[in-house]
Amino acid sequence: MDYGQLADALAFCGNSLLAPMTQRTGVGLDSGFWESFPLFGDQGVADAVQDCAVWAAEFERRCQADGQSAVERCAIEYTRLFVGPPRPAAAPWETAHRAVADGADSTVGFGQATFEMRELLRNAGLQLCNENRQYEDHMGIELLLLSELCRRAAANDGLAAAEASAFAADHPAAWVEGLRSAAAEAVPDGYYAGLLGVAAALLNVVVREG
If we measure between CA atoms, which residue out of 70, 85, 64 comes closest to residue 26? Predict the structure, then answer.
C-alpha cells in the first residue's frame, strides 16, 4: 500500500470539509481531477471516484447552461450542509452522530468525542490551528489526523499503520456513512455526498490494510 499517496488523498478530503470551496480549492469540480485520482486497487474507491467524475462533468454542463458559478454553488451547498442557518443539515461532528446513534436528534458539536480527539491529537504531537475554530471531532480534522498517521506509516512505521487502522475504525469510519447519508438527503445531487463517499471508501482501505 502506498501510504504516502493515501495520506494525500485523505488530506484532500479533510481539507475540503473544513472550509467552503473557493476558486483556489475548487479542483474537485474538475472531472479530470477525479479521472487521475488514485484508486489503491480498491473497487469501492474506484466506484466512488467514478461517481465524482461523472457528477463533475454533468455539474459543469448544468452550471454553464444556467450561467452560474460552480464554485459559488458548492460554497452555498457547504454552508447549508455544515453551517446553517439555523443549524447544519449534516452536522460534521462525531459528537452529533453519537447522539443520533443513541436515539437523540442532536446537532451539538462538543462532547465526549471532542475530548477524545483532543487527546489523540496531543498524543500524536499535533496542535490544532484552524481559522474556522472547528471542534476537534469535526470529520475534516479526523481525516487530517488520519492523513498524518498514514504519512508516518509511509516511513515504514508498522506501528503507525496499525494505529491508523485502529483510529479509522474507532472514529471517522464509524460515522462517515451517517454524515454522507445526511448530506445526500439534504442535497441529493450535491458535491459533498460524493466527496464523503470517496472518504468512506478510503477509510475502508485504511481499516483493511492495518
Answer: 70
Mean pLDDT over residues 93-102, rounded? 80
What is the predicted pLDDT for the residue at 157? Answer: 74
Task: Look at the alpha carbons of 41, 24, 171, 130 in this order and tell me if their dihedral is positive or negative.
Answer: positive
Q: With helix as H, strand as E and coil as C, how does the chain read? A: CCHHHHHHHHHHHHHHCCCCCCCCCHHHHCHHHHHCCCCCCCHHHHHHHHHHHHHHHHHHHHHHHHCCCHHHHHHHHHHHHHCCCCCCCCCCEHHHHHHHHCCCCCCCCCCHHHHHHHHHHHHCCCCCCCCCCCCCCEHHHHHHHHHHHHHHHHCCCHHHHHHHHHHHHHCHHHHHHHHHHHHHHHCCCCHHHHHHHHHHHHHHHHHHHC
Q: How far is CA 161 from CA 42, 169, 175, 190, in A?
A: 18, 12, 21, 33
Rounded-to-10 torsion of CA 38, 60, 185, 18? 60
**Rounded to an integer, what distance in angstroms lies between the CA atom of residue 106 and that of residue 91?**
9
Asked whether 200 and 173 are in contact (CB, 8 A), the reply is: yes
Which pLDDT band, with edges at 50, 70 and 90, does 101 fall under? low
* 172 to 91, 94, 150, 192, 199: CA distances (angstroms): 14, 8, 14, 16, 9
Write down the pTM of the prediction. Answer: 0.92
